[in-house]
Design goal:
alpha+beta, Ribosomal Protein S4 Delta 41, Chain A, domain 1, Structural Genomics Hypothetical 15.5 Kd Protein In mrcA-pckA Intergenic Region, Chain A, 2 domains, 5 strands, globular
């Protein structure tokens, strides 16, 4: 499993916005951005910086998306190339590369678990998957990047349901995304995620421009 080692709160401060990487902590007063604002980390964080170039803006958006979904540069590049290939292949449906990029990111197993409300963060979802505590259609899947498909069912193992943070998530009964239905410790993908259902503060077009240079 690919590992992103940078501290979660530091990642949010670097991108200047909440990335919601630490579940409940991000919504409470303990969040560093709530306390001190979105100041970049390091000794030079408070210094005024010059206006970023177009390349710098594109780079920051790419880094933000990578950090939100917890993926590496290699994974991000692969997903971009796959989305571009699919958009070029199926021109009849007029697939937009950026929309397909977001769909591929959303359909990762770790993200789908988070969107279903079964767990409170993508990092917890990745840990459960890698420890063989998640089943897809009744079979154990231990690859966080596994591409979940429409009509497939994700479910928590008995071991996973005994984990305190998972028990808390189940008790809260968080509402799943529109493209997922949830019942108890399981969730089903009922449709492809639509762009309007996803985060509005992400500009995937900047990522397309970055990789198309």
């Amino acid at each position: 499993m690919a590992k992103v080692s940078t501290k979660k709160c530091r990642q949010c401060k670097r991108e200047g916005t909440k990335l919601f990487l630490k579940s409940d902590r991000c919504y409470g007063p303990k969040c560093p951005i709530e306390k001190k604002g979105a100041v970049p980390p390091g000794v030079h964080g408070h210094k005024r910086t010059r206006r970023p170039s177009d390349y710098g803006i594109q780079l920051r958006e790419k880094q933000k998306i990578k950090r939100i979904y917890g993926i590496t540069e290699k994974q991000m590049k692969r997903i971009f190339l796959e989305s571009k290939k699919e958009a070029q292949k199926d021109k009849k449906r007029q697939i937009v590369t950026g929309d397909r990029l977001m769909s591929l990111l959303e359909l990762r197993l770790d993200n789908a678990l988070f969107r279903s409300g079964l767990v409170s963060s993508r990092s917890i979802a990745r840990q459960l998957v890698s420890h063989r505590n998640i089943l897809v259609d009744g079979k154990i899947v231990n690859i966080p990047s596994y591409k979940i498909k429409v009509n497939q069912v994700m479910s928590l193992s008995t071991t996973a349901m005994a984990v305190p943070v998972v028990k808390t998530s189940l008790e809260k009964k968080n509402k799943p995304a529109k493209w997922i239905t949830k019942k108890g410790p399981s969730a089903k993908i009922i449709s492809m995620p639509e762009r309007q259902d996803l985060d509005a503060d992400i500009s995937e077009q900047l990522v397309i421009e970055f990789y198309s240079r």
